[in-house]
Design a protein that fits this description.
The chain has four helices and no strands. By secondary structure, the protein is mostly helical. The protein is flat and about 40 Å long.
Amino acid sequence: MFVVGAGCAFAAIGLWRRSLWGIRIALVILSLNIFGDLLNAVLRHDYRALIGLPVGGAMIFYLARYKTADSSSSR
């Protein structure tokens, strides 16, 4: 749980600063969460985990389109 908490803390700090590394960490965490939800649904037949797929997908879609301070300064 320490690793998960530290990863979320780093992602939160990076997102607060609008940095590219924060978005990348958040995308990795969300992707792992979606993968875990899929595994729970398929292997354990816990179909309640499927509610996380559209939620996580929407968050990934939003973060993938997000403009960072790093990318806007390169123009």
